[in-house]
C-alpha cells in the first residue's frame, strides 16, 4: 500500500483509500465534476474526477473505501489526484486501521487494565452502576474502546477515549492512595464516566466529527444525563451519592468558562478536574512535540500553551 | 398582629411568628440557652430563650409557627426578643401570607395568563410536553405557583417563579411577533421551562434556601434533565427538537461564566437569554428602587449594576 | 441589468454599476493602469483598465455611476472585469436602489410608525426636543431615513438606522407597559435619539464608512452632544431631565468596555441598553442565518456569538 | 484653635468647626436628637445634640461654620462630642483654610506657572480657546484654582485640580521636547483642559462630593462638552483640530474600562494619557506613603497598587 | 499545660506560652499599658498588662517563651487575658512543638523518603547540584525540614515545606513513569527545588511571616537565583540544562497572573506546574474540610475554590 | 549599491547583500536546491539557487555577506531572485550599516549623555555597581551600544537598547526633580539596568532573534540575576538596597500579565514602570506613524494600541 504522505508529483496511483468527503461541483465554465478527499492513516489528499463518465463514479459515497486509479499533479503548489477510474471496495479488501489514526497502545490490554479498576469499586451502588456500562453492556464497551476523545487536539484517534480515560483513572488511583480526603469509589466512578458523553458528542470513525447533539448540548451535559438515567434504574441508589457523582462529571472542566456549569465543590470533583487536565495536557504536549526528533529546538508559538514550546535537552 | 418592623425597645410582645431557625447554644459561662430567629413578612428578629425551663421550649422546630411572649431589648444596638413563654400553633391559627414575602400580583390570574400562552403552542410534541407539566400535573402546577425564583435578589417571594416566568414568556411573545426568524412554539416552550429547575434548586417556603442538589447541580442542569426525562415518555418526539429545547434551557444564562455550559447557538436560545436577562434585571431594579419614595436620590453603589443608581426625575 | 453575483467567466459585460473605489497603480514592469471596484446591490467585482488610453477613463471618480464595457476573466480563481470602455452616467440613467443594500421594509411606513411614537411623548420639554429633530427638521428627517446603522454587521443598509431605531422604540414601548418603574416619555426620547450620532459617525451612502469624527469621538459622544446642544435652545428645559436623557444615550452600550463611559444608573438607561442589544443581536442573527435556506444546518463558528450557529428545525 | 486630631476623652471643647453634616434622628426610645459631623483640616468627629432645647440648635445648616461647646466622650471605642451649646459663626470669624485640606504648594504661584504654559501656545485657535478659559474668564480661573481633583484618592484638596493640571502640563512639556512626533500646542491645550469637567463632576468645597451630573455624565463627558461648546464661539476654528482636542480629552483615561469611550488614536492623546496617569499615581503614592516617617516599613496591601507598598531605604 | 483553645471566662491561668507580639500602647486617658499576643499550637489569645509595674514586664520580647499568671475575662465578647505576673523562660523549660503548628507526619521519615528520590537522579550534573543542597549542606537540610510552605493557606506549619515538596516529587515520580515525554532527572530536580525560595520569602517559625525580600522579590525569583548561583560552582554544568532547570522553577505557577514570569515551555515545566497545583489544592481542601466531622455538610463559600464546598457522603 | 526595495521584475542584479537565512530543499520532483534570504537595510528578498553546481554555493553560511549575480523574477506575485553566481565577501568590502537597521541618532553622543547620568549617582554602592558595568567594563559598554531593544516592535535596531535606555533615564531624571518621594540614585540605577537582560534575551545583529535563554528565562529574569551577581562582588552592599534595585528591575513591566513576577511596591519601581512604558509606546507610535508623510490619515487598526491610529493635523 502506498501511503498518502509518500506520494510525489507525476506518480501514478492505483490503491485503496478511505473516501472522507465527496461533493459535486461545477467549473467556472459550467462543467460538472466531483471533488473527493481521500484519507489513510498518514494523511489526506484532494482528488478531482473531471470526467463525468469516469467509471465507478456514482457507485460510492463518503466514508466508503474505494480503489482509485489516477495521476498525481501539483496545483497551486499542492498535490492533487486526477482520478481516472474508481471502484468501491467490499469489506475484507482493506484493514480500517490502515486508514484511521489509532492509539499506539493495545486497545485490548488497555481495556483489561481499565476493568481492573472497575472491579476495585466496593460501594455496591457505584459498582452496579459502573458494571452496567463497562462490563455488562457489550455494545457500549465495544464502542467505548473504538471511540476517539477529540476531533483533533489530544487523543483524537481510535482508542483515544479509552486511553485518556485509563490515564485519568490511573492518576485518580495515585491521588486516592496519597490524599486520604478522597473517596476511591466515588473518584474511580467519576473518572470512568467523565468523558462518556463524547461518544455522542463526536460521531464514530471514520467521520469523527461533532454531532448536532454535541454542538447543542456538549459531552458534559450528555454524559451526566446518561449516568443519571442509568442510576434511575438501580433501586435505592442513594440520592446524595447520585448528585455527587453527577456533580463530579459536570464540574470536571474546573471552570465555568471551560464549559462546566458548576465549579468543583467536593474533593473528588477537584481531583477529577486535576487528573483530566493533567492527562489531557501532557498527552497534547506529547502529540505536539512527538514529531520533532528529540532535539531541543523551538516549535514556535502554541496557542493552547500560550508559549513557544520545545523538548528539553536531556 | 404586631409586625416585626414596628417593634421598639422596651415593648412586650405576645404574638404569632414563623420560627425560621432554632439552635441550642452555651453561654461563655457554660449555661445552655436557645437561639431562635422569628420572621414575618416585614422582617426577622433574633430571639433568645435564656431559661431552659421556659414553657414550650421543646415543643417546636424550625419552620413551625409559634406564639411567643417576651420583651424587646437592645443588645449592641440591635433589637432582640427575650422570650418568656412559647406555644406551637396549629394550622388555621395563622395565615402563611402574613409571614412570607408574596408577589404583589394575583397568583391565580398570573397562572391563568400563563396557561393562555401554553394553549398557543401548536406543535403537537411541544404542546403535549408543556401540557404534561403545566396543565396535567396538578402537583407541579401548584408547586410552581407557590415557588420563589431566588433565595434573595429578584423574585425571591411566593409566586416569584411564576411572575418571572410569565414576564419572560410575554417578552418572548413580543419578540416572536417582531422577529420572524424566531419560532414561537419552541420559544414559548423554552421560556416556560427555563427556570423550573429552581423548584429543586431552592427549597419551598418558608425555608427558601439552596438544596444539596441545587448546590451540586444547579437549576440549569436540573431543569434540562427534567424536561429530557419527560420527553422520553412522549412517543416519536423529534430528536432534533428535543435537543434544541434542551439547548435553549441550558444556554439561557448566555455566557459560560454565568453557568451556562453552552452559548446560545440558535435564534430561540438567544432570544430566551435576552428575555430572561431583561425581566430579571428590570425586576431587580424595581425591587432595589422600590423602597425609595419616588424622588431621584442616589441609593449608593449597587454591586449587581456596578454603579450608583437612582430613579429618574419624571 | 446584469447583477454582479450572476457574472461568469468569459461573459461580456455592458451595463451600469456604481464605482465604489478607483486608484491608479503600476504593474511590476512599470506600466500604469487603473484599479476599480464596481458595486451593485448584489455584490462587488474588481475591474482593471489596462490601457491608459481607454475611452472615458479620466472622466469619472469613485462614487460615480458608470457604464462599462468589458470581459469577465478569472485571475487566481477570482473573477475580474477587463474594462475596454467606460462612460460616466447622468442622474436619471440609474436607480440608486439597484446599487446599494436597502431595507426590506418600506421606509416611509417605518418613519410614519416612528413618528407615531414621537407623538405619544407627553412631557412638554421632551416633546419639543424630539419634535425639533424628527418632525420639524426636514433635512434631519430625510437623512435619518436614508442612513445606515453600521458599516457592516447589523442594519448596514439604506434605512437601517430607521429600522433599528424603530425596533428599539417598539421594545421600549413594550417594556414601559410591563414594567411600571420605567417612565415612558424619557425612555421613548432616549430610544429615538440613542443612535443619531451614527449619522455623523458613518458617512452617507454610497460611501457608508467611518468618518474622521466617527473614529475620534464615536456615535455615543456625537449623539449626546447633539442632543445637549439642542436642549440648550429650549427655554427652561429641566436640568435633571437633560442629564438623565444624556445619561441614557451615553450608557446605552451597557458596559464601559463596549464604549459607554458610564454604566446605566437609572431604570430607563438600563431598559434602553436591553432594547438596543436585543434588536441588534436578533437582527444580526437574522442577517447571518438569512442566506441559509431554512434547514437546521450548522454555519460554523460566528465570532460575535462565540459559537457555531444554525437555525432551529421548526 | 484645638485641632480635632488632638482631642482626647474627657476634654471640654469650645471652638469653631465646620459642620459637614447635620441630621435629625430618633433614639430607640423615641426621643429626637441631632447627629452632626464636625470637620477641620485635621479630621472629623461625630457630635450628638441630645437635648432638643440646646441653644442654637436650629440656627445652622450643614456646611455652616459653628462654634460648639461640649464634652468629649468615648462610645464603643470611638470619640464623640456631646454638644451643650452651639452658635453659628459669621464670615470673618474663621479662616476656611483651617477647616479644609489645602495644597501644600502656593496656589497663586502654581497658577502663574500654569498661565506661563498657556502663553506658549502658538496656534491662534487653540490660543484663543485656552485664553478664553484660563485668562479671560476670571470666575472660571478663580474656581479652577480653588477646586479639588477628587473626592478622596489623589489631589483631593483645595488647589488639587490646579496642582494636578500643572503636573500634567509639565510632563507634557517634557514629552514634547523629547518626542518630535508630538505637537506641543495640541498637547498643552489638551493637558490644560483634560480635567476641567471635574469642576462640575465634584461640588466645591466644603462639600467636595459627586454631583448629580457627575454621576450621570462624568467629568470626561462634561469637560469635552464644555470645550466643544466654547469652540463653537470661535470663528473658523478648524473642524479637524476641534475633533482632535475633544478626542484627547475623552480618551485620556486610556482604556475603555477606565471610562474613556475611545482609546487614544493620535500621539498627543497617548501622551496625555501617560502624563495624567504618571502624575496621578505618583501623587497617590506620595499621599499614601507621606504619613509614614521615612523608614522603609511595609504599609500593607494597597488596593490601587494591588501590592503591599513601602518607601525605599535611601 | 492548659491549651489556649480550652480557656474559659473567669479562669485563672499560670502557664507557659509563646509571645507572638508585644507592643506598648496608651489608654484613651493617657495611661501606658502593654498589648501582648500569646500563642500555643491550638491558637492565640490577646493579653493586656495594665499595670506598668507588673513584675517581669520589661524582661521579654516578642518571640520569647514566657510564663504568665493572670485571669481570663471577656471583652466585647472576645476572651482576653489580664496579666498579673510574667517571667521569661529558659530553653529547656518548654517544647517548641507545643507552641507551633506542626506537620502531622514524621519529619525525619519524610526527609528520608525525599532523599530517596534525590538518589534516583542519574544525570551527574543534576545529581551534584541536588546533593549539594539536600545532602551535603546540613544547615540547609535542617532549615528545609523545619520550614513552613506558607504564612497561612496550605502547609503553613513546621515541616510544611518538606511535606509539600515530597508530595510534589511523588506526583512527578508517578508522571515520569506514565508519560515518556518527561525526563525524570530534570523533573525530580525541578520538583525538589521549586519552593526553596520560600525559606527566604517567609521567616522561620515562630515568626513565619513575609520577609522584606519575600515581598520585594518573591520565592520564585529567590529560588531560581539560589539554584543559578550554585550551578555556577559546578564545573561544566551544561548551559542548556541550567536554563531548563531555572525555567521549570520560574514557570511553576503556570500563569503570568499567578506570578510566574514565563509560561511552561517544556514538558517538565508543565508537569511541575500540575504537580504543584494538585498537591497544594488537595492539601488546602484537606485543611479546610478537616475540621468538619465527616458529614457532608456545606461549609459555605470558599474564595480559593470559588464555590461552596463540602465533603462527599461516602 | 542597489537597495532591495528598488528592485523590479526583469532586472539583473550583481551586488553585495547580507545572507539572513540559508537552507537546502528538494523540489516536488526530487531535485535539490538552495533557499536563501538576502537582506539590506531597506528590506529582504527571497533567492533560489536552482543549479547545485552554481559557483560559490557551498562557500557561505547564513549571516555571511555575499555578492550575488542573478535575475529578478515574479513568482505568485512576489519578487524572487534567481541566483546564477555567488561569492562570499571579506570584511572591508561592505559597511554593515548598509545592511542593518540603525538608530537615527548618533550612538557615541547618546552614550556620552548616558554616562553623564551615571556620574550623577552619589550613593557609593550604586555608583560602584553602575560604573562596573557602564564605565569599567568596555566589552559590556560596546555591546550595549550596539544592541537592539527588540526583535521588531520598538527600538528594534542597532543602538536601540541604548536609545531606549537613555529615553527612560531622561524621563526618570525629570520625575525625580518633580516628585520628591523618588530617590534619584535608586531610580537612575534601576533605569540604567532595567533592560540589560535584553543583551542575552536577543542575539546580536545581524541575527537579532530570541535566544534559548531569552525564551526560557526572559530579559527581566536575566537582567535581575546579572545585577544580583555583580552586587555580590561589592563589599558591604546594603542588603535592603540590593533587594530594592532588583525589585525595580523585575517589576518594571508593571503588571503580572506583562511578565513581571511582582507589581511595583516602592515609588521608584512605579516611576520606572511609567518611564519604560511612556518611552516604549511613544517610540512605537513614532515608528508606526513615521512612514506616513505627515498628513492626518488613518493607518488602520493597530493591535498594540487597540485602535485605528493617525497623526494629528497640526
From TrEMBL, chains A, B, C, D, E, F:
Domain of life: Bacteria
Gene3D superfamilies reported for this sequence: Hypothetical protein af1432 (1.10.3210.10), Nucleic acid-binding proteins (2.40.50.140)
Pfam families for this protein: HD
Gene Ontology biological process: rRNA 3'-end processing
Domain HD/PDEase: 157-290
Single GO MF descriptor: hydrolase activity
InterPro entries assigned to the protein according to its UniProt record, in alphabetical order: HD/PDEase_dom, HD_domain, HDIG_dom, NA-bd_OB-fold, YhaM_exoribonuc/phosphodiest
Keywords: Hydrolase
Protein name, UniProt field: 3'-5' exoribonuclease
Organism in which the protein naturally occurs: Anaerobium acetethylicum
Amino acid at each position: 500500500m502506498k501511503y498518502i504522505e509518500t506520494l510525489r508529483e507525476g506518480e501514478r496511483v492505483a490503491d485503496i483509500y478511505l473516501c472522507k468527503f465527496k461533493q459535486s461541483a461545477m467549473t467556472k465554465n459550467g462543467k460538472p465534476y466531483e471533488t473527493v478527499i481521500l484519507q489513510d492513516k498518514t494523511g489526506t489528499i484532494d482528488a478531482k474526477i473531471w470526467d463525468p463518465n469516469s467509471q465507478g463514479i456514482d457507485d460510492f459515497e463518503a466514508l466508503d473505501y474505494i480503489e482509485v486509479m489516477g495521476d498525481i499533479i501539483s496545483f497551486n503548489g499542492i498535490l492533487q489526484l486526477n482520478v481516472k477510474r474508481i471502484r468501491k471496495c467490499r469489506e475484507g479488501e482493506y484493514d480500517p486501521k490502515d486508514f484511521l489514526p489509532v492509539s499506539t497502545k493495545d486497545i485490548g490490554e488497555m481495556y483489561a487494565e481499565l476493568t481492573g479498576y472497575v472491579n476495585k469499586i466496593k460501594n455496591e451502588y457505584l459498582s452496579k452502576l459502573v458494571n452496567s456500562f463497562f462490563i455488562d453492556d457489550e455494545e457500549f464497551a465495544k464502542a467505548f474502546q473504538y471511540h476517539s476523545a477529540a476531533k483533533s487536539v489530544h487523543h483524537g484517534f481510535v482508542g483515544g477515549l479509552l486511553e485518556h480515560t485509563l490515564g485519568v483513572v490511573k492518576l485518580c488511583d495515585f491521588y486516592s492512595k496519597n490524599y486520604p480526603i478522597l473517596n476511591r469509589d466515588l473518584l474511580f466512578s467519576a473518572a470512568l464516566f467523565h468523558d462518556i458523553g463524547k461518544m455522542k458528542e463526536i460521531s464514530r470513525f471514520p467521520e469523527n466529527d461533532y454531532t448536532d447533539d454535541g454542538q447543542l448540548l456538549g459531552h458534559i451535559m450528555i454524559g451526566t444525563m446518561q449516568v443519571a438515567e442509568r442510576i434511575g434504574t438501580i433501586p435505592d441508589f442513594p440520592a446524595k451519592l447520585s448528585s455527587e457523582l453527577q456533580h463530579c462529571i459536570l464540574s470536571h472542566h474546573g471552570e465555568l468558562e471551560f464549559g462546566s456549569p458548576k465549579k468543583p465543590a467536593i474533593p473528588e470533583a477537584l481531583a477529577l478536574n486535576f487528573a483530566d487536565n493533567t492527562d489531557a495536557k501532557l498527552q497534547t504536549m506529547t502529540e505536539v512535540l512527538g514529531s520533532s526528533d528529540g532535539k531541543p529546538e523551538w516549535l514556535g508559538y502554541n496557542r493552547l500553551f500560550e508559549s513557544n514550546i520545545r523538548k528539553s535537552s536531556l
